[in-house]
Amino acid sequence: MGNPNILDDVFEKFVNCAKLFKDREVLRHDYLPEKLPHREDQIRVLGQAVAPVLKDARCSNIFLYGKTGTGKTAVAKFVLSHLESKAKEYGAPVKFCYVNCRMTGSEYRVFASLSQSLGLSIPFTGLSVGEVFDRFRNGLDASRTIFIVVLDEIDALIKDRGDGILYELTRINEALHKSKVSIIGISNDLRLKEFLDPRVFSSLSEEEMVFRPYDASELRNILLERSKLSFYDGCLSEPALSICSALAAAEHGDARRALDLLRVAGEVAERNGSPLITEEHVRDAEKHIEHNKVVEALKNLTLHSKLVLLSVYHLNKASGTNATTGEIYDVYNELCGELGVSLLTQRRLGTLINELDVMGLLNSKVVSMGRYGRTKKIRLEISRTLIQDVFGSDERLSRMIKYEPKLLSKNTHNRH
DNA sequence: CGTCCACAGGAATGACGGGCGG
DNA sequence: CCGCCCGTCATTCCTGTGGACG
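^ Those are the sequences you sent over. The predicted structure of the assembly is below.
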């Protein structure tokens, strides 16, 4: 078989080159450090807010706002884990449950997850939401605890499912005799209140905390702390550290982003056999991360979404101008015909286009062409070559890349 | 100034695979 | 095994609309 020397080389290089990583885990964003620099105030305030539970009282419901990577989740977990150990010390019957609403996905699973943390077993599916809620309530009351529910990324749940779950939760205390519930809501979206029933909102944010984005120097400190744990001494160059924090600061002060950059930069450096992480490696890392995200997104699309993208691909190439929904539908129709695939409605196509827009693969904006109607102008947001690269490996799709839609030639009645 | 195009995008309603309790 | 409910994807039907044209 083949040529073992090649692999030998790779392994050899890996083992021999200076090791950079002491502990890679530290740079993951779900790692909870012992210190959260620049969040001392928030920790203190949140700590004060939840402290009453140690004296058997319910604490206020609290809402944490802030963009991604501003430390909301970290602060909440940090405070609660300390609270938990304090509670043990005092023998206070406190329990908490952390749920990430976006990951969890639905009301049903949120309640299932809450119930499980109480030791109740809830089937994956099969029950009505009401039934799960009842079981949760009963189980909770029986457990005689003060229960703190952390609902992270709550905006994701509310935006497409409404505030029913929160309404139920805010009222649950009325039905409890031996237990109490407090809610800590975490939202990335500052406009969340607009989506909420005002009654729910006011009961939910008895207290509010806003997390400002980190600035470059704060990010720098955070990275410095973590890099001490994750890399061996002297492996990280000053300029690399600075550029990491600057890049992440430019992107709404996202610490998560900064940590990702640093970790990937480390991996790049390691692969290059460099004993030092340099500015260059960080820049490579930036491209790398972006590229990977897009490729992953492209690969995971459904066939129809891919065909929509390809339709835009063809239209943009042919006319040089932006495509409209109608044109896309025509070309998409043709591609489906070529592949012998049943086609979706135009209505459905509209939502697919919006989804692709949100993912940043397309750019669409509504424009009115007056007498000639109202539509969306759609443009590809990613390079054509990337589409060719990713879709080219699929036999059917690569045929559709080469295919020249007939409609393009006769469909040249473009005004203005 | 009203008309009317070419859609946008909300609401209601299936169809369907998965999974439950009984 | 049946009847039921879940969540997801899709269709059907629908009302809404910015602005160039006449």
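The two ends of chain A are 63 Å apart (CA to CA). Residues 40-210 of chain A form a domain with the Rossmann fold fold (CATH 3.40.50.300).

Shout if you want it in another format.
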